[in-house]
Amino acid sequence: MRHFHPAVLVLAAGLGTGGIAHAQTDPLPSWNEGAAKAAIVSFVKETTDAASPRFVPPAERIATFDHDGTLWVSHPMYSQVMYCLERVPALVKAKPELAKAEPFKSVMQFLSGDRAAIAKLHEKDLIKVAAATLTGMPVETFQAEVKKWLAEARDPRWKRPYTELTYLPMLEVLRYLRASGYKTFIVTGGGQDFVRVYSDAIYGIPPEQVVGSAGGTKYGYGKDGKPFLTKEPRLLLNDNDAGKPEGIHLMIGRRPYAAFGNSTGDRQMLEYTKAGAGARLSMLVLHDDGKREYAYGPAQGLPDTKVGTFPQALHDEAKKQGWIVISMKDDWKKVFAFDP
User: Fold this and answer.
1) Whole-angstrom Cα distance, residue 134 to residue 6?
2) For the chain, which end, N or C, has fewer CB atoms within 10 Å of the first or last residue's CB respectively?
3) CA distance 213 to 210
4) Cα–Cα distance list, 233 to 125, 128, 130, 133, 134 (Å)
């Protein structure tokens, strides 16, 4: 993702049932026939056929996926940012003096219905909120708080849990690749610890296969003498832009054969993937369906945005480099599992 500093983010829907009955004939039933679907199927066939000159040994089959805007909804605000904002009331309750201090005062006004209050906040303010709500606690406490929030929070548009706002076509791609011997990884600019809480239950991706912006931890002992880790407000890995291939090398150790993103923050990951030898697949999701999801770019004349920006320059580069642009409007029969 792009525009908000990764430090803002550091800090079940399941795989859907659609298509299981048709898996033998169509591994991607929620996709319309077209160049994007054909590229995925062709890539899988040529890299898994032992007789193919572009065959990829099973141990080398790595596919990476950005998270926000690629696997689930990221508008009008990243889910982790919403988590941070909605944790502020508990913080103010514990420390009442924060109610009159910025940026917490503006956040409380926003949560009380003053939608314009959030516009007062700058990047440094969001970083301050993130540091206060994502750090200074044991890792287990953080995990429990995220699980509780996910169970209770509802997206303002669909009134559904965020975990139900995963893209069915992308879940099918995850399933198809794994059935073909690929190991799937989430590589996100968002917080690594945050995504690891739910990645296995929602995507079938275990926490050790999540690479994200990561903060530091400190080892210590409780009053009972048992050791634990405390989350600290220091950035270890900025997993955005060039940080994505750097994080892939650090955490995975292999160049991906397939990579999926949706914004400028994913450009280097797709570039790095496509630069490898043999068959490589780099794909970008273009959010051009304002009716079923959202429409933003500003590529192809779509509205501009600070959340998941997809500029025309990225669209042009994709065409030049042979990356495939996925049109949400044209390539997907369904966006969500709950769509009619």
Assistant:
1) 13
2) C
3) 10
4) 14, 10, 9, 10, 8
Helix/strand/coil percentages in the chain, nearest 5? 45, 20, 40
Q: Is the preceding peptide bond at 227 cis, omega within 30 degrees of 0?
A: no
What is the per-residue pLDDT across 13-43, written as a single tens digit (0 to 9) for each?
Answer: 333 333 333 445 899 999 999 999 999 999 9
- Three-state secondary structure call for residue 282: strand
Tokens of 97: 């003096």
305-331 confidence digits (pLDDT tens): 989 999 999 999 999 999 999 999 999
- Which residues of the chain have a pLDDT value below 50? 1-23
Q: Is 0.85 topped by the overall pTM? A: yes
CA dist 118 and 102 (Å) reads 11
**Count of Cβ atoms closer than 10 Å to residue 51 Cβ:** 5
Identity of the residue numbered 157? R
**Cα angle for residues 13, 204, 180 (degrees, 5° grid):** 120
Q: How far apart are CA 270 and CA 302, in angstroms?
A: 22
Question: What pLDDT was estimated at residue 13?
Answer: 31
In order of 61, 163, 249, the CA distances from 252 in angstroms are 12, 26, 6
How far are the Cα atoms of 46, 113, 167 from residue 212, in angstroms, in the given order? 30, 32, 20
**DSSP assignment of 129-159:** HHHHHHSSSBHHHHHHHHHHHHHH---TTT-
Cβ distance 155 to 73 under 8 Å? yes
* Cβ–Cβ < 8 Å for 164, 202: no
